[in-house]
Sequence to fold (1086 residues):
Amino acid sequence: MIKQQFEIPAGYKKWTLGFLAVGILALVLGFFVLGIGKDEHAQTRFWAVLLQNSLFFLMICNSAMFFICATTLAMGSWITTFRRVPEAISSLVPILGILALIVFACIIFGDKYHIYPWLDKNAVATDRVLNYKKGFLNPVFFLVWTIFTLCTWSFVGWKMRQLSRETDERPLSENQARQFTWKNTIWGSVYIVFFALTVGSSIPWLWLMSIDAHWFSTMYSWYTFGSTFVSGIALMGLFVIYLKNQGYLEYTNDEHLHDIGKFIFAFSIFWTYLWFAQFMLIWYANIPEETIYFKARLQGSYRGIFWLNLIVNFVAPILILMTRGSKRNYTIMTFMCVLILLGHWLDFFQMVMPGTVGEHYNLGWYEWGILALFIGLVMHFVGKSLTKSPMVPKYHPFLKESIMHHT
Amino acid sequence: MDIRKFVVGCYDDEEVLFPAVKKVRKAGYKIHDVYTPYAVHGLDKALGLRETRIHTAGFIYGMVGLTTALSFISWILAIDWPLNIGGKPHFALPAWIPIMFELTVLFSAIGMTLTFCYLCQLAPFVKKHHFHPRATDDLFVMVIECTTKTNVQEAQNFLTGTGAKEVNVQLAETGWWLGTYDKDRKIFEVGKEAISA
Amino acid sequence: MSLIKYESFVREPLVDGEKNYHVVTEEIVHTIEAKPTRLWYIGFSIAVILLLLGIYAVYREVTYGITEWNLGRTVGWGWDITNFVWWVGIGHAGTLISAILLLFRQGWRTGVNRAAEAMTIFAVICAGQFPIWHMGRVWLAFFVMPYPNTRGPLWVNFNSPLLWDVFAISTYFTVSLLFWYTGLIPDLATIRDRARTKLRKMLYGIVSFGWSGSTKHWQRHESLALVLAGLSTPLVLSVHTIVSFDFATSVVPGWHTTIFPPYFVAGAIFSGFAMVQTLMVVTRRVMNLQDYITIGHIEAMNKVIVLTGSIVGCAYLTELFIAWYGANIYESDAFFKGRLTGPYSWAYWIMMTCNVAAPQLFWFKKLRRNIEFTFIMSIIVNIGMWFERFVIIVLSIFRDYLPSSWSMYYAASIYEVGFFMGSLGLFFTAYFLFSKYFPVIAIHEIKHVLKTSGESYKARMGKIESEDMEQFYHEIHEAEHH
Fold:
């Protein structure tokens, strides 16, 4: 019999609590040892790690909604059997958004100019470039645009999830089904357009690129999108596999897993493509104001992470996920999903750290502890969100197509 | 030159074809081949055909292309005639990646296509025996190879029983030969002994 | 394999009308077997005349040298490279439709992929003309190939994006050709087997390679198509990426920007779809193929146009923003004084209007499904994309770092224009010949989707549609295992 309603298993609860406990411990300890210490470097470390994690997890959860909207617009039916999973993941956007906002507020109102150099009023007054950019890089615009963005993501995402719930109760008549598809298309487009204006352009400039406030790259936002999108798919794949193993999602089978694997494979290559284009063009033109970004990453203590980033996020998926068999293998897919998530977490690490903590970075108890905190949060809230609706949108007009989906 | 006798059954619907394939195989007849106007998914499995490994060949060709590109370029620019180009190192790997990629794809695509043509005996001026002209139009043509034990009449009746719309017996050459399609070739003069066999 | 053929009723049929396999063959092959219409002859003649014009223009250029073109001190790349990039861009849609949409399982690709692929090949041929004839001493064109020679051997420069282009374009051409032709083989066999004249039987017999339709061959054919699609997907990205490298690796303000690769690819898809749209709207009417290239197909392509147009728009704005944000005076001057304002600003604003503003009208379903509007829009986008390349190339180099060498107003000479016209002639000549002698729609692929997406078959799916989900699931399950 198909289990329709998700109930959080005891083991899941135990692990969630474990992660949360470790995470909260690390946060509290970090706050006292690093956050309010005298050492500025330690303070910066405290906030930089929080910034890295909150943004990474916020953006990958948000990309789950992007995935739903993109497939909706493309009339992709195959995700219907498991679409509740990305829906549940996307429901974290408001929660993680608030967390990110708290981190931003602390950084901005605490004048943490080691994180964002443009917060330093003296520097803005004397530094020609920072002064020039102050129309864009200033606390007011930053906060207003961030809050507006988070609200819109949350609202449209909520709207899409609400729409999806309409297919739970009763069969839709032909007209209703067409109406349903139409409404989905409208809200999906609204989301995608707004997504392009935020994730596709302005948001990564503000949140991440402004860490290296002198530096710029037109590719940056699309690169960030590539990174978070592929991790978002990996996170979704992880939950789908877990739920399958727990006996849920009976309609979802190897064919769907295979396609998730294809997405991970394809978008890993896409990410690499963007990585290469950005890197090669800067390397080739060799203009100092641009190469400075890679100098810090290629020639200093980040060297190892820089190359590891490529190996984990490009070499591994392209070799391991190339064959048909591996994309249909639960163990390999689980491994790859975890690897990709870790890999792009590391990618975010090397995006944030060189510009904030500089040469002497740590990858110690605090970093892993905060990672555990966010894993715990994601597990907790996704689990809770999954219990709130049936696992399968029973009367979705595309469900039958999705059931008989063949790769 | 190999001439054999075949019983041919033509179906006009894949929903009839699939059960028919199953029944014919169960009855112990040897299906020579089924000719279809488009790629009917699952028919290969129904006929018990092995998965094709042509994509593995493609992977190998690609690797050959990649190796060729990398070794050729690095030999030229780092060993045979090192030049200072824009102050870049002689071994300027990032600048070679585009060509390395292109040659990987080129080798793989050409190699695979040639392998495909070789395996399926496809080339200009190649001619084969076609059991029914409508096999490329709207008929699914099942061809049963007769052995010495086969009762031809019985086989024909059996095919009709499985829903074949048209049934006949044909003598045919199994391989390919050079020729054009506007000219017929009388294969029977060459292989009269085969017919009697 | 399940024998249950089903597709949601929400989806529009891909093949209209009451059809069976034979009717599909009949209707698509008909145009090849019948005599061409008057319209075809007229169109073909115009194309050939344009082609001859182009040949004359090229003859002038080869005999009298590059000075026949109005290239000057700073504008060393003018119409020629603009046309090159424009054509390469157009040559992206075919492979995109065939490969990426195949991988993304967009069923509607079956109606248009064959013609789009053919168009791709012709467009790449046209594109190749420009850099080749631009070499000046074209008889030495083979110098671009890396071969052992008596000049040292002095090798080509593998670090140069221009050489990457040589490899990219030739690989792309070869792979597209293979992809297109392997797909054609079964359809050519279909024509061969129903040919009534001897000549046709012979010719289609030769080009169909002795295809028989054997199950094993189909199995390999499918696998080949899938892998070639998988290879073409990154390939199609790489080609326009490498074209963008021609500009972006340099340190010219307006050229050196990291977003160029994906933005060029999006632009290529955008212009490619516009050209496909131009051709399809005409083809379906002239050849009476409205049942196969339906309004649904047109609408789907219009959706791709509005999507890619918006991506391109996003990239334009990103460029503008970073031109300001980068705090580099040369970069910002190139944009704010050389494009938004300045002597060539009209080109910039034509580009913005045609590429970003105009396609937004496709947000309206009514307009997406309007044939005449689609046709006009496709032309507008084609023009806009030509201007995009013109803006990128000419507007970035007409002023260099030395104001004393700032060029006079660059305008193409009659031979530059003639060459461009000639490439249009070449393209349409090839397309007219293709539409006469080859099946413009992939027959075997239409047959493949006919019983799931054909209008008359979908009409009979009511029973499955109303079936309970559990029961449906079990039926599928049963069918899979037997």
Notes: The first helix of chain A runs from residue 10 to 35.
